[in-house]
Amino acid sequence: MKVALIQLAYGDDESVADRLVRVSALVREQRGHDLVVLPELWAAGGFDYRHWPERAETTQGAVAQAMSVAAREAGVTLHAGSIVETTSGAAVGRDGKDLWNTSLVFGPDGVLAATYRKIHRFGFGTGEPRLMEAGEELVMMDLPDGGGGTVRAGLSTCYDLRFPELYRAQLDLGATLFVIPAAWPRPRVQHWTLLAHARAIENQCVVIACNTAGTHSGHEMGGHSQVVSPTGEALAMAGTGEEVLSVDIDMSAVDAWRESFPVLDDRRIPDHVR
After folding, report:
1. FRET pair for 253, CA 20 to 30 Å: which of 43, 132, 139, 231?
2. pTM value?
3. pLDDT tens digits along 180-200
């Protein structure tokens, strides 16, 4: 399975329109990969809270349309990171809001194949919790493995990485791969690398984690996008600037490791904590 992680760098001086053109070109350059992954909220700005309402769009908006075209022209499955999604008033969440942090995945035909609304909102009462609704559904999808088959992938986003129960639930739904776009800041980048390794090791899954670079809204981003094997080995790790990681992943290593080191067979959960 050949994967490209586009660790995008951007700042406040780049317009959303210019960034959209630039990212579309970067995606088109990844022809020959099975999966291409972009970071979280790269168009709206991961920490640019004040602009989120005006940059919100539907899952058929300008970003989605551009990413659909780019995926089709590159002939890749594209995890297009996430957008600030609005339903334009057609529906609201439990808290009465009309914004979500929503990931979009397009097939090589350009068709929207999956969406995931971020379950865990970062901000401790500000930022995402103040402006956005929480997602409520686990999302799984089959991704091409490069050999004519598919692998079962669980979708999550950034802050979700801190909540291991989410990944256990995806494991129980058949996951062998986790795909995680993020806008993780530099001061806590050690947590980013450590937690991605932990999710891979404890679930014996491959982790594809694509972070943001650059500085926007006063926040320096952490970079260090990474692909981690089910044994916890870093198959590839980016630096702190804009970079494209191209990685060949042997997904058969998941079954092989689970068979040779069957730790998951020893899971025991007492009835009183179920």
Report:
1. 139
2. 0.97
3. 999 999 999 999 999 999 999
